[in-house]
Amino acid sequence: TLIPMLCAIAGLIPHYPLHIKLRRQVILVTEDEEQVWMVIRAMMADGYLNAPEEELNDWFHVAPASRLTTSEIIAHAEGLELMKAPNERADGTPFPAGPLLVMDTVSACIDTENGSSNDEVARDVELIKQKLRCAAVLLIGHTAKDAGTKAGQTFLGAQAWEANTIGAVTLRRLDSGVRELVVLKNRFSANSPKFKVVPKTARFSGKDVLGNDKVIQCLYNLIEPMTAEEIEAATLEEREAKEITRLVEDSATLLAKLTEMLAGTDSNGDLVHPMGVKRGDLYKALTGKDARWKPVIDRLADGEGSELTIKKAGKAELITLTVKT
Question: Distance between CA atoms of 250 and 244, rounded to whole angstroms?
Answer without folding.
Answer: 10
